[in-house]
User: Fold these one by one.
Assistant:
Number 1:
Amino acid sequence: MASITGIGSYLPGKILTNHDLEKMVDTTDEWILQRTGIRERRIVENGVSTSDLATHASLKAIEDAGISAEEIDMIITSTITPDYLFPSSSCCLQKQIGATRACAFDISAACSGFVYALSIGQSFINSGAAKTILVVGSECLSKITDYTDRSTCILFGDGAGAVVIQNDKEKHQILDTNLASDGTYADVLIIPGGGSRHSASMESVQKRLHYIQFKGKELFKLAINNITNLVIETTRKNGFDVQDIDLIIPHQSNLRIIEATMEKLKLPMEKAFVNIDKYGNTSSASVPIAIDEAQQEGRLKKGDLVMLVAFGGGLTWGSSLIKW
Ligand code: UT7
């Protein structure tokens, strides 16, 4: 059975606080903290890219797993901020870590991307088609954030997380993953420019089409309902009750979304891992960064039932149930 055998994460050193944002747009520390739970986020220096962050996180995960980069059969990176449209950030990462034997590709499922990538990796391990897979969530969201738009720029940050998965009964077993999408909401969370619909032009830049746009209120409700239902479905499908969950590691998009979800699930907030105050929303990097921090803080004990759950653009959502 596919198991997580190594974990690593990396956050760039530069900090952008709510007070810094007060000087950039018409906002306040109080508003941001009350509405989102975010105090600060990390931002890359100029010239640093998604595969650079992924490299730091991956090397830690590889060391934690006690393997060499040459043992990796496959690299799957989830990102909405790839180094280039092509080649993939996974290929850039492959070169940087020397994973010479691996096949490498990126996937696009926005904030749910890490759970999607984990599910793909799990299937390859369980079928026997691969032995060692590096699954990464890495984002430089500061590169696609409009720092003149107060409704979005307060939310996002940069970072990366990675796990190694292998067939190992002694480690953290991935019991099940569940994925869902609803493309009818594609325009609710979107970067309209830079693809084949509105390719890069003077006009697309002037219209600011290369930045994240969203309908926050609509997303807020959809996130709570879909995450809640998915957690309930996933636990029941695997013969557990929601109350059996020891720790939920949710995508960190808004503290109020996490609180409302826990309330609907009738679970205390102590059963949710939260680090949004430090990093904001790092899209597909948020779940693996949170796994790494939860592990380091001693929040994950052998035998614990752990639920990863994420929701984001697409719309997409996904869960992963892990026996720690
Ligand atoms: O990761 C993928 C999933 N992401 C999400 O699910 C994000 C979901 N949405 C959210 O987290 C929230 O909707 C936001 C944090 C984006 C916004 O919070 P909200 O409570 O829904 O605020 P709102 O958009 O309804 O705005 C309330 C008021 C408005 O003013 P009026 O119209 O009431 O006068 C906004 O103009 O707050 C104003 N506002 C701000 N004020 C100060 C919006 N942004 C700001 C700001 N600072 N940064």
Number 2:
Amino acid sequence: MTLLVTGCAGFIGSNFVHTALAASDETLVNLDKLTYAGNLANLASFQQDPRHVFVQGDIGDRALVERLLSEHQPRAVLNFAAESHVDRSIHGPGDFIQTNVVGTFQLLEAVRGYWQTLAPVPREAFRFVHVSTDEVYGTLGPTDPPFAETKAYEPNSPYSASKAASDHLVRAWHHTYGLPVLTTNCSNNYGPYHFPEKLIPLVIHHALAGKPLPIYGDGQQVRDWLYVVDHCRAILRVLEAGRVGETYNIGGWNEKPNLEVVNTICQRLDAVRPRADGQSYTSQITFVKDRPGHDRRYAIDARKIERELGWKPLETFESGITKTIDWYLAHAQWVEDVTSGHYRQWVATQYG
Ligand code: NAD
Ligand code: DAU
């Protein structure tokens, strides 16, 4: 059996490869363009493993996707590939439209063509899983209930608008053509292999490098954090047992204001890697200009996936953040490799 997975040299996708191959011997054909966010070092342990087949390419290259589908005959396609960073979408939305909207359209068309050629039994069993985000729902006030699957889409950033558009395409390919799709909308992930442009890995990296820890605005924006392996386990459950045509919200019941997250990281680092001058890493916290259109609060109501598929997060925020910090401390070379070159240019553009 084979799965075609896209974007699995990135943060969540590479964790998915690790999680899936720890649990099964199914072959994963990984189609990834290797943008700045794609990194084969995340998959170094599978270099000689025949269960992981890497193909460099674009989900928008329909001829390539058609060839991979016909060659490998996957039982499912899981789409992780995307431009994923909100701040980059503000500086340059074009790539987000191209990959997240046009790319998803091309991928859906290639998959639809393949699915229609399948014999009745594999055709019935086939699944297209689209990995999406809670940001499509917009922003919450302090006392609003968390996002349920029934919440109307109200995306506010170029990134979330492009993901919302891709979700709508996936939905339409089900309703119009009958393609057996499932969509997941997950909250903020953190864990190993997280690119240090995102809050948690950026703060760990900057703290250890003696650089400012940039907090946008007042730091009271709330995110609902989920350890990445719990997200990958949820995607596997949705693939195996999700109801076709449904969407599943995935979250950790871990709402935290950004400043609290940064303080927690600083306290852990103070304990395990104290600064030479004896001061706390919190002294590096610096309030900077807010993100334009910054969503104030995200929170996920994960009761549907818990009830229907029996999924629950295994990590608390405390256990997950400890594992994450320990991973970054043990992988200084990985951080060094991904923060050279283009990364430095990005930090200069974003933080002046
Ligand atoms: P990431 O930016 O770390 O990785 C994206 C991967 O996609 C990279 O390997 C990149 O090379 C690849 N890619 C980009 N454009 C491509 C294209 N046109 N063709 C093929 N490959 C391409 O992103 P991530 O954080 O791992 O997110 C993965 C998915 O999960 C995305 O769809 C994202 O919207 C969604 N998501 C992310 C989070 C989060 O907290 N990071 C939460 C919920 C949902
Ligand atoms: O909610 C799911 C989404 O989570 C995913 O769809 C996105 O792909 C993923 O990048 C993430 O989006 P966020 O914008 O929430 O994540 P980010 O790590 O960029 O920021 C988290 C919070 O921290 C947000 O409120 C902005 C703030 N922040 C971020 C950075 C990079 C700062 O205060 N300072 C920073 O330097």
